[in-house]
Amino acid sequence: MQLGCVWTVGKIVSIGLSGALTYFDVADDCSALDRPTGVMFGHSRPIQRVSYSTSSDQLITVSYDGLMVRWNLATGLAEPFRGKEAHTTTIVGVVTCGDRVATVGIDDRLVMSSLSKGEYEQSLKLASQPRGLYLSSTKDLALAVCLKHLYLFSLAPEASLSPLVSLEIPPEATAGCFAPCGSLVAVGMMNGLIDVFLTDGGKCLKHVADVNAKMSGECTAMAFSPDATYLVVGDAERYLRLFKVEGVGSGCPSLTQVNEWRSHAARVTCVAWAPDGNHFASGSLDCSIIVFKPTASSKICEVRNAHPANMVTALVWKSDNELISTGHDACVRSWKFH
């Protein structure tokens, strides 16, 4: 269904109910239209999460209405994924590994898709509502954090959709992350506690007792540094805390707080490390993006109103100085830091 159109110099552009823009090349004396020259897709609802495929240089974004699109970063054009296994409501997590794209939504399903085909392929029902999906890039493993369960999945090309490991946990898990080495995961709780689990390369989820790491409020975002030396955690009380990770090799990991910031004016919504591990960025309900160094006592860079009047929902680094952000304004924005 088409909702409206505009005739500008040399083109007619029509907008559909899905938000797609269909455009035609026309002459000033045009009396009939040929086939559309092209169709431009994007999001018309708040974007929830983002993932970047280094192998194909494509961006994958998911939104509140269950739409997932892949972006060609060279042209800036997007194409929606298609298929019968699409999510029926909000998607809350997306990761990509090679040609496989995994997503989880509040329809309590994990969906596996093909990046090259742009198609939803398989889905699996989960036992409780997902809160997020996190990748261990070097081990082809994904962690699904649900309200009452944790799941480990393999994203290897021929791997089954069945979970490698599932574990029932106390309710109210709110965030998580996977160490790049694939041997350690962290899970944040509504009460601010941070739980740590050993995975043995995807063979188990063994809870580590007496970690004694805690935030001031609900854990809202967390991420390991690329070398798993640090864990940064954001919470609903505006705090960002940096923990030193030690003892992973001995099987007795510990978290020691080494830094703390409270630079945002509202709850932290997302964090992401640059590939070199020298700095990380955080986004917030206050619409801003702030960049920090682990060893610095204050922020090194701030972008206010990064998504004007809308919260920043997700961050991903394309390179050591190029950051991509998404927001509730349904926009994807790219930033370069010098």
Automatic annotation (TrEMBL):
Keywords: Repeat, WD repeat. The keyword Repeat applies. GO terms for cellular component: cortical actin cytoskeleton. GO terms for molecular function: actin filament binding. WD repeats lie at residues 40-76, 261-293. Pfam families: WD40. The keyword Repeat applies. SUPFAM superfamilies: WD40 repeat-like. One of its GO terms (biological process) is locomotion. PANTHER family: WD REPEAT-CONTAINING PROTEIN 1, WD-REPEATCONTAINING PROTEIN WDR1. Belongs to the WD repeat AIP1 family. This is WD_REPEATS_REGION domain-containing protein. It comes from Mesocestoides corti (Flatworm).
